[in-house]
Amino acid sequence: MTNNKTVFITGAGRRFGLALAHALLDDGYQVIAHYNTSKDGIAELEQRGAVAVQANLADLQQVARLISELKQHTQQLDLLVNNASCFFDNTVVDDDLANLSTVLNVHTAAPYLLIRDLQPLLAAANGSVVNITDIYVDSPSTNYVAYCAAKAGLASLTLAFAKKLAPAVRVNAIQPGPILFLPEHDSEHRQKVLAETPLKLEGGLEPMIATVRFLRDNPFVTGESIKVDGGRALLI
After folding, report:
1. In 48-109, which ranges are continuous DSSP H helix?
2. What domain of life is recorded for the organism (predicted)?
């Protein structure tokens, strides 16, 4: 793959965003890696030639500044991955209304602005967008009401922008399931989740990366949402 392709990944400092950034560097991409506070992995990416950009996606003024900064770094964008997330349960959201705004802005409003305003850069490259949603878009959890609603908003944006931006830009989504447990997930929680997952395993990050590459490389797929969840959505 030639090295003149550019990708912008939100939430690239840790977990899936970090692994995807490394994988696309391996593919020869110029990676523009967004982070808010999780910078540990960003230093690794910068050492490999990635460009780091910081913004709090909960603050839409910072999102506007981020978009301006991106336009200074590149005149075309081959791939945009809206990956940044904040996994707030009902208690966190209800403790402070600012947390409700954060959930809605990070998962829905910020991706809306990024897709809308970066569309000329994407069109210049016949590029594509991959939005990371969630299997709970289709069957929301009562413990994460705002989170599920915000991810459902991102799923709707996927469909709407796929229609609006065709044929110049393709827009798709991935719905992850139990890909990588969090450190705070104890063995009881992990066993329960895996028992409710037909394939009975923690997926790891490679299946997600492979799905991004599929959506990137298949020129006849848009408006699609692919579950990468070991079948878990069948049982929730």
Report:
1. 60-73, 90-95, 97-104
2. Bacteria
